[in-house]
Specification:
mainly beta, Jelly Rolls, five-stranded mixed β-sheet, two-stranded parallel sheet, 2 helices, 10% helix, 35% strand, DUF192, Saro_0823-like_sf
Amino acid sequence: MKEYGRTIPYKINAANSFIKRLKGLMFRKEPLVDEGLWITPCNSIHMCFMRFSIDAVFISKEGKIVRIVEDLQPWKMVKPVQGAHSVLELPSGAVHSLSLKVGDFIKL
């Protein structure tokens, strides 16, 4: 039995349709504050047309963090992450403040 010991204390919006995944956070003017975007299914992201940086947490189907990219800047990209089924986009600095680590299990 897996334990999901970590929760994210932010409002998490789901991007689980083609259009929502395609749009993501593009063109949003204000940076994330106490909120996140969970994109599923997804194993890579781009920061085209973004106006602020984010922390990206790549998660397996089982809820295990398989990769973390902190302070991902606009116009950068993350190539496909092996084992990732979804990505949680959080405010820049959230990974550090929440002490998230690869191998942690989280529940969304």
